Amino acid sequence: xxxxxxxxIAEDDADDRxxxxxxxxxxxxxxxxxxxxxxxxxxxxxxxDNPQNPSIVILDLNMPKKDGRQALKEIKQNNDLKHIxxxxxxxxxxxxxxxxxxxxxxxxxxxxxxxxxxxxxxxxTVKDYWWDKAALV
Length: 137
Description:
Keywords: Phosphoprotein. InterPro entries: CheY-like_superfamily, Sig_transdc_resp-reg_receiver, TCS_response_regulator. By secondary structure, the protein is an alpha/beta fold. The chain has one domain: Response regulator (Rossmann fold, 3-Layer(aba) Sandwich). Helices cover about 40% and strands about 15% of the residues. The protein has five helices and five strands. Strands 2-1-3-4-5 form a five-stranded parallel β-sheet. β4, α4 (about 95-105) and β5 form a beta-alpha-beta unit. The chain starts with 6 loop residues before the first strand and ends in a 6-residue tail after the last helix. The model has no long low-confidence stretch (mean pLDDT about 90).
């Protein structure tokens, strides 16, 4: 089984960051493994400055400065970063956003749920697959 070293969560909304962190904790994913950024520029800067890439990036599409759509393109076009699994977690359920995200290399796309229990269940699904089943490098 692969050990998750760190998770970068690109989310500009403070309430959503807190809810995601709580849901990760409820699924026994330690807060010490989390790095939060507020926009795509900050995400790309951390990825470029950090010699040890994160195990996973959780990416919101709608962020200031550089949005998640552009950040995803840049990650997946960069030979040093494109192997990092990226999970989009967005309020957008637009077919165009979903299709575009997969076209640009996203590994999984989730629409943010309206209920906290649904968020915890989504995180459980992510954990089950990415922590327990997928082979990562």
